[in-house]
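Hi R.,

Here's the chain you asked about this morning:
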Amino acid sequence: MTTGSAGPAAETASDGSFTIDAFHRGGFHVVQPKGEGHRSGVDAMLLASLVDADGPVSVADLGSGAGAAGLGVAARLPQARVLLVEKFARMAQYARRSLVLPDNAFLAGRVEVLEADVTLAGRARVAAGLLDEIHDHVIMNPPFNHGSDRRTPDVLKAEAHAMTQGLFESWVRTAGAIMKPGGQLSLIARPQSVAEIIDACGRRFGGIEITSLHPRPGADAIRILVTAIKGSRARLTLRAPLFVHGEDGHSFAAEVDDLNNGRAAYRRSKPAQA
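And here is the predicted structure, written out as tokens:
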């Protein structure tokens, strides 16, 4: 769900190359490419809603793109420090442009951009700036298109969406390495990836909680929201489903509207230490 962000574009470049989009009903803005790459919307805001904290918290957004999800966390949580991790220089530059927008001045000093490949391991990962055990939360919206899916001619977008063999294993491995013991992994993905996600969590993460996300009552799930705790041995929980829209299929359901617009966090059903 890359459409349906919380507000219309506030500004479009004269050459049509980018837009400045309002999220959280104008609470913050994101510079995004218009003709290339991945454009963020509801998915990013629901991912951001999975981070719940009352005080100072360190968050890494892996594969952050233009930074919408990480910025959503920082906008809702005034004591959050966020690292946006993106390997494509062009997308990282959009995130940097977002950080200097006057409307985002309240985020100054709390959000950084790191150009790095999430799949790096060991010394290469550390050398790239992804340091061991420093973050309380790691969030991610990994690529989700399988090889059999129709390919877009947009190279940057295709790369951002292309799922490769072992992708979840490498991304979750990195999340576990850079996260403090007891930290929380949060991600949004297609339902078809649930087995790969559980397998990737393996012994690194437990207390997995999965919520299916449906467009409306009676429709099949199109996304899943997943959280897990580093080092936990708690069993998996399948939570009650979330419906994006009501019966009319148009207006947002109240709970999703609150999550999408930064008015609430989607809290875990069980304590993190369980």
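One quick note: The longest strand covers residues 179-189.

Cheers,
M.
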